[in-house]
Design goal:
Helices cover 55% and strands 7% of the residues. The protein has 291 residues and is mainly alpha-helical. The longest helix is centred in the C-terminal third of the chain and has 33 residues.
Length: 291
């Protein structure tokens, strides 16, 4: 009987397989508890077990480190939790791997600075939201609200298009993202009132203030140009009046030039004389009397 692909209970092959899978699914030694529990437990049990059973976890996530995980994150083409028949995405598998190896804060900050790799930034943003303190979450994720790059989201209904700023905003405001229940996050206003967090630097307010400053400068320049034009108009009125007088005089002279010099019809001989000979009435009578 061929039993090469089967594991017998209590056999060395089965024991070795169980030990390997246990090592692959165990949190790294010395990892700190997050929110009072194992970091991997931040992912729900059903989804976590699906990830352990997936081929991507077994083939691509085994023995990954914080450095080698970058290559896998670059290959990711979408974000999301589960799709289809509760199958985990590669993005979610890498999130669980980050929770397992628990990289240092400096490494995650470098992930966020990699603007050319948007899915690596999205991966680091979700991990920071799950594990970091509230103050650090706001300080590290709010700058990503200026990132308007397009990212694909895969869910139970298929693919959809979203943007990085919308994704980060959902991490800061919603309770569930990528099929994961996020830890409770205090509101920003509460942290500002307690003095733990400074006021938010809004890009829109900076633009409005810039426009108001530009508008005030333009208003000052317009007022200066208007005052200059008024001064010029006051100083230039005599010359303009003189020009008008000269123009009126010249127009009167021109009018006088074109006055008709022909004599009047009454008592004057017309300058136009007919060249045809005139016939008097006496001559007409003599011509009639002649035979």
């Amino acid at each position: 009987m061929v039993r090469s692909n089967l594991y017998v209970v209590g056999s060395p092959a089965r024991a070795q397989h169980d030990q390997t899978s246990l090592m692959a699914n165990t949190t790294v030694a010395g990892a700190l508890a997050i929110h009072g529990k194992n970091p991997q437990f931040l992912v729900e049990t059903v989804i976590r077990n699906r990830i352990y059973e997936s081929n991507y976890w077994k083939e691509h996530c085994f023995a990954l480190t914080a450095e080698s995980l970058i290559d896998k994150a670059i290959e990711v083409t979408y974000i999301g939790g589960v799709y289809g028949n509760q199958r985990p995405t590669s993005f979610m598998c890498l999130v669980l791997k980050l929770l397992q190896i628990q990289p240092e804060k400096e490494i995650l900050v470098e992930y966020l600075r990699a603007e050319e790799f948007k899915y690596l930034r999205a991966l680091a943003a979700l991990y920071i939201r799950l594990t970091f303190r509230a103050v650090d979450v706001y300080e590290l994720l709010e700058p990503l609200l200026k990132d308007y790059s397009k990212i694909r989201l895969r869910g139970m209904g298929g693919y959809s298009l979203t943007f990085m700023d919308e994704y980060v905003y959902s991490l800061l405001t919603e309770e569930r993202v990528c099929d994961i229940i996020l830890p409770r996050l205090p509101k920003r206003q509460v942290l500002e009132e307690n003095g733990d967090l400074g006021p938010r630097k809004s890009r829109l307010l900076d633009a409005i203030e810039g426009k108001s400053d530009a508008g005030s400068e333009l208003g000052r320049s317009d007022s200066r140009s208007r005052s200059r034009s008024r001064n010029r108009s006051r100083t230039g009125t005599p010359s303009r009046n003189g020009r008008n007088l000269t123009r009126s005089r010249s127009s009167s002279d021109v009018g006088s030039r074109y006055v008709s010099r022909s004599r009047s019809r009454s008592g004057s001989r017309s300058p136009f004389r007919s060249r045809s000979r005139s016939i008097s009435p006496d001559r007409i009578q003599l011509d009639e009397a002649a035979p």
